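Dear U.,

For the methods section draft, I wanted the exact inputs and outputs in one place so we can describe them consistently. I've listed the two proteins in the order they'll appear in the manuscript figures. Please don't edit the token lines directly; just add comments below if something needs changing.

First protein:
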Amino acid sequence: MRRVFPLYALSGFISLGYQVAWFRIFIDWFGSTNLTFALVVCNFIGGLGCGALLSQRITRLLAGRTGIGDKLRLYGLIELLVGVAALLTVAVECLPADLWGSFPYHLDDGIWVQTIRYQLAQGAIAAISLFLPCLFMGVTFPLLCDIFRSIPTNGRLPSVLYAWNTIGACSGVLACQFILIPEIGHQPTFWLMAGLNILLGLYFLASGGAPASDEVADTAWATFPSAGVPPRSGSALIACAALSGLLAGALEGDMFKRIDFIVVLSPGAIMSFISFWAVLGIFLASIIVRHVERIQLAHIKVAYGLAALYYFALWRFSDELTYLVGNPPDVRGVHHFPVSLSQLFVYTGIYVLPAYLLVSLLLPYVCNRLQGMGKHLGLAYGLNTVGFCLGLIAFTLVAPRLNIFYSLKLFLIFMALVAIALACIAEFRPIRAWQIAALMSFVAIACIATPRRFDRNFFTPLMWPNAVAAQGMRSNAAHTTYFLELPNNNMKLFFGRLSMSGTSPRSQQYMRLMAHFPLLAHPYPEKALLICFGVGNTASAIAAHESITRIDAVDLNENVFKMAPAFAEHHGFVHLDPRLRMINDDGRNFLALSNETYDLITSEPPPPMAGGVYRLYSREYYEQVLAHLSPDGLMSQWLPIGQLPNDAIELVTRTFVAVFPYSLLFEGAGQHLILLGSRSPVRFEQLSERFYKSDRVRTDLLRIDVSTSSALVARVIRNDAELRSRLGPGRVLSDQHNDLEHLFYDPGEVQRIPY
């Protein structure tokens, strides 16, 4: 039996390795969209839950079809099926990206959005490649607990198994995030997990060794301390399992949103750190339940109350905690947090571990109780996992669609209601229908009564949204979007706490130059692709060129397009230009689907260290762009050196230069630099000739203080030869290796690249 524990830890390692890799693989397939996140979460957690609920049926079916009587060999067969089913992901990768056509969009209120057919196809692919292996994963825990029910000291076996599995999962998160993916990439990591899974299954399939009898020992209940006689019904414990999963899933989902809101420019490592601390909390909770023999449901009720109080207090002092872990704001009121990976690790640990440990005590306790009663754990574990899925979806996809302020406030109320509901459950009394109805009624009242308006108290006094009224607030599951009207005719577009774009003179200058410089260097530009629309400054500059016949603007946040009328006076009503197509999708996904070529592709995503954004600065991205450029086409890429550490500046620039045959770097405005890439050298004499041919273009350039062609050419900082000489050979940014994920901007760092 002892050999099962470390091998089940390996199973946990593999499972979390799959999850980390699946997130990245699905983003490669369908882009970094809300639908992608929902597909991975729902199929992964939902598959586990369905597998647990169907565990008895699946094991009986497999035993009947294969004739395997040894249940450990049957466990090996199921692990083997997990690995084989996971390989369907590799098969799906062979499907052509444009299988559903080169433009699978339909027009909805002026915005081109993905067709239902395309979205259903994504769901079907997720179900085939992700749900099926997770279904088999969900069978394993109830099956192993069932195998060893006959051992007299089995009363606490579920908590022991759960602890081993979760410590393996903790190791899997760290190993994948910091060793495997950085070194070999997420696809080879996935293949490695599948290979280990198959080897694990083959080992148990060959060795077996389950106890000869699966009868429940007569002393099973006696081996587990209780407060009285065995309960006549396990319904209270089953309800506790479901309630535990519901709160745990909601808590993890809220943590993703809450920490992402506080840490303004959220690095990609946040999700992995939250997962690590959450799984570590589950492990420690399982150890506590295993070793503290006198623990009772009453103690866990108190733990739930403490978790709610701790989480509320932590939220109240979230910003102060960033000052404690990092540094306080500087004299200008600007606060940079985090400036290192260790600061982020400690901050997420303080936020996640205590609360998650306290709420995770309930499931291992319930499983131990049910095991001691001789009951199969499939129902309890399955309902727990399904509850987790529902809670996670509720607070990552549903509540945030109203807005982030509503979602974060609603969760605190929900957490208190769950703690109260648990306090009302008596372990030895069956659950009544009115109790379930009462909880659902209170949750419904909370959903209706929680305020949905913009809340300036979510911002520190040093932040603009605390002092200036927000306007035009809209939300989807990913972002709450709004704008502010600041002094000096400056408007700013915000996602949560993050200022995404604006209309200040400096913003106008570099955004318009991203279009004008390459378009003037092209002999006769006709089609342009704008990745990330912002407030429309760059689109407006593109539209000023009369030769342009079409502008495709792609943005992941549809609310950016819906807010375009608010900025109309600044972008010249470009949103009404018949040449403009506003397309709601991930920029990479659009390029993978499209067969169009463009004379200009301009890219102005958030800074590259923000979570998920590195894919718009990678080698594969620039290769996609180059493939979609016409023979004389050019690409312009925003490079905000004032927001990047030295290593990130070098990495992004080297990656760009490595792909484009010819590159140059020019000044947009201050520390907002612009990279320009093409197949042939930029012809400055042509730029000078075309500079004076269009009155509209000259007028637009005059508004950003560029009056002559020589003034425009003078902005060039480094030509192709100088860039290559300065950068030299070295590592480049790849989809498979997100080296930016572990880099942080520190304003105290001395810039060693004298641009």
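Second protein (the one for the lower panel):
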Amino acid sequence: SNNRITTLDLSFNSITGTIDESYCSVLLMINNNKMTGKIPECFTCHFNDAYMKGYFIGNQFDNLDSIGTCSKFIKIIIIVTKPALSIIGQNIGYDVSDIYSNPQISFELLIEGNSNIIAFNYKLNRIIHNIKFKSTDQEFTLTPDPYPPLLSNITSNNQILLFKGLYYSYDIAEITITIGGKSCDVTDSTFYQITCTLTTYPNQLNNVLGIIRVDQLQTKFNLNLDKRDGNEVFNNYTSCLDNCESYSGNKCNYNTGICECPQCFSPNHYVSSISPTYEDGGLVIMNGWFGDINQDLNITIGNQECKIETISPNTITCNIGAGTGKKDVTVFQNGITWKSFNFFIYQLKQQICLNKCTDTSHGICDTSNGICECKSGWIGFDCSSPSNYNNDGNTNSTVHPDGSTTIINHQTIYNILITSLLELDINSDTVKQYPLQNNWNITSKDKNGKNVIFTQILNETECQIILSIQEIENDIQYSFAGLDFKLDKGSIKVSVSIHNYNYQSPLNTLQLHMISNISDTTSNDCNSKPASTSTSIFDNQVLNYILINKDNKILYGRFINRAISDGHTTLITTSLISSQNESVTIGINIPHCETSCYIDPDFSVLINSNFKTNCDKSKNHTTLIAILVSCIGVATIIILAGAFYKKSTKSKVIVFKLKKKIKMAK
């Protein structure tokens, strides 16, 4: 329609009749008339807004008190025509102040009611916006710069397929999916996922070529389709990122998912490590692979552009402004976008020590690294354990062939296990999982079994994982990833390195799962206490901890939020997967590293200050006292009872005689 009227005020006119949908393109003010029938849903679906509903009061409409569902909402897209940005769709409202955007977009003009709203002076950037419409309570995810659809995961339930990823559409009419030349009919779609039905299967089931097309942009992928008992398993698909084949002569290798450029050597870049800055901003160092061609290079951390200082094939330095917390990192060059969620963490200048080192008489906190410096007589990560209690030789550790470690102290048994390695996609969904326990091979072991090295090759891969477990026989100073700290005698140092892992996508990362728990033991002595767990896990802290407390003894696990990725130190995070009274599962989040990743946690069992060293003697002495007190108590009760009986009998006689005298007097 060429109609440019955006508002039509017909209130207080005694108008009769009905309203049809031809009025949906204008903000209609029709209150206080004599109109009847139904209000079109293009208006009623905005009736969460009292002002909108007020434009229709004072009539005899059948559905004035009903709120529509905006079921005819077809699509919403962002179109940028310099210097303006437009939102085009259906049922998007009549008031620019009704729209909220994060990051913020200042919408200024209603071009056509309920279908076209514009923002001027918009600076084009590669940012994903969350757009919310207050009147309909609907929220959408959009980007102003069109990208080809990005796949991260495909799952199925019978013939229904679910595609997860980015840069899809809310309009199913502009999405087509074919698998082996067979159409998968799209039934639902958002920015992040698409649901379709594959009614006819292709003749070829392995390495099937698929194409997903959104509007004018498409991505090819390969998958294995295994049809058994009505269940389909989709895996091993590959896709090239963004608009690979239309930039600088690039070609997509659909067997590997790598965007290749044999003649121009345009890189399929990634970031494997980041050296961040403090919360007031500063220089950021990124290591990885960026190649020799860096056309249109742009780096975004959170919502800020990181201004580039230097570029080399393996390292980029840039300056970022002030901020806090975790931020996404996006690197764009040569028409290709690489992104990692929550990869950058602003650092605190003042680190916090575990439990504030218990007390100033126990230790002092070094706020530069969050490590307690214990005073004489105290040891432990928080200086809470008396040193004289923890050197009695009652702590023993055993490394088992399955890669687990057992620490026994005064009948309390603690276990440390590395259970699995997960590959996570950009949405943190698991795309691969490898069980590690019971698959280790011992490659080195000292005669006492205190230092053991295990290795294993992940099933059907060339990835090697090396596990080193060492019992510390004497207090030592140790250094890892630029951090110096002390390892106490009897503690267990666990080192894990992962080599040559083949990721399904350059956007994917790894997560290593570790379990610490207590075996089922029974203790009847005076130190018997039920098991409990606690954690101290913060992304912006250098050190994270888990604690398992039982029978006045504590298993401490210390996790350094740093790793060595492809030879460079980088920050990592630790996630609490599960926690129960006697068990804690931790996920160590490892970045995308091509050649090697190293992590280095350590554990120790310490006795707390409530522990009683002479529990048995104390118990026997207490028992004798209890028996003696009991005997004296029984004798006393017998004597008192006899005396009371005599006194009671005498009282009864006196009362009887008094009663008798009173009776005689009468």
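Candidate sentences for the figure legend, describing the second protein: The longest strand covers residues 412-424. The helical segments are 41-44, 50-54, 615-665.

Thanks,
Y.
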